Amino acid sequence: MEPGPCSIKHSSGNINMSQLSLYENLESFAMEDQQGNKDWVKPQVEAEPNVENHRRRNILLLISGLLCSCVFLSFVFLLAGLLKISAMHMEMKQLQENLQLEFAQFKNNVSEEVERNHSDMAGELSKMRIKVSEEIETMHSDVTGELSKMKIKGCSCLQCPINWHEFNQACYYFSTQSGNWQFAKQQCSLNDSHLLVISSASEQDFIKKEASSNMYWIGLNDLVSERKWQWVDGTTYELSSTFWAAGEPNNRNSEDCVHIDDKGRWNDNKCSTNFFWICEKQKNSA
């Protein structure tokens, strides 16, 4: 018997329509069951990304926390460093002020000590100058007395040239023409003498009397060094008596040479000014 159109041939025999429906139903159930299993497994597959994301979020939170902690600690250390630097700066400033104060005090002490020593030395020098001047004048007076005794005994071996004035065994020439200080110095040299050097009060009185209110150059100047007065014969200025006019020397307009004014007192003036002059030398042998 041949199979009908609605029958399917199977390896074990022919399968009728009802068997085919059953087979299809079983196959459909199996497919649905398989599909249901797939739908049940799917949440497990989707759950893995959520766990990974959660882990990554935790890691990011941990890193952020660490970064915030590092920034906070850095800020704390920076603030502590700034406070320490500020404290060191204040300490250094205080130290500097203390050093400046100590230096100022030391400077004042040294200045006072130097001034005190200078005053003491000036006083000692003044006493020494007076003492030496007195001794020189005494020696000069003794020599003058001895020469006077020699004259009394008939010895007149020393004398001054014509037109020269005699005083204490020295000769003085009062010029009758005028010239500047250098010219006057040269004229005295040509006469084997030098410009007047005054070494005592008695000599000053003699010159003042003989000058008769005229102005004469004398051998005192500070041409080499300002305010360092020198006599032309090398006599030490600091050890000799001085007879300056009031307020002199004042060095107005480069006044480096000294003359006797109309009252017999000393005055510094410009060396180019024309005055009379006085020459001085010791007595010559006859």
What does this structure look like?
The chain has 286 residues and is α+β, with helices and mostly antiparallel strands. The chain has a domain at 157-285: Mannose-Binding Protein A, Chain A (Roll), CATH 3.10.100.10. Helix content is 55%, strand content 15%. The protein has three helices and twelve strands. Strands 4, 5, 6, 7, 8, 9, 10 and 11 form an eight-stranded mixed β-sheet that branches. It has a two-stranded antiparallel sheet with strand order 1-2. A hairpin with a 2-residue loop joins β1 and β2. It starts with 7 loop residues before the first strand and ends with a strand. The model is unreliable at 1-15 and 38-45 (pLDDT under 50).
Number of strands: 12
What would you call the quaternary organization? single chain
What best-fitting shape do the alpha-carbon axes yield? rod-shaped
Work out the strand percent. 15-25%
Low-confidence stretches: 1-15, 38-45
In whole angstroms, the N-to-C terminal distance is: 204 Å
Report the average pLDDT across residues: 83
What is Rg? 64 Å
CATH fold label of the domain at 157-285:
Mannose-Binding Protein A, Chain A
Task: Look at the helices and sheets and give the structural class.
Answer: alpha+beta
Helix content: 40-55%
- H-E order: EEHEEEHEHEEEEEE
Helix count from the secondary structure assignment: 3
Main beta-sheet strand count, sense and barrel state: 8 strands, mixed
CATH class category name of the domain at 157-285: Alpha Beta
CATH architecture of the domain at 157-285, please? Roll
CATH-level-4 superfamily name of the domain at 157-285: Mannose-Binding Protein A, subunit A
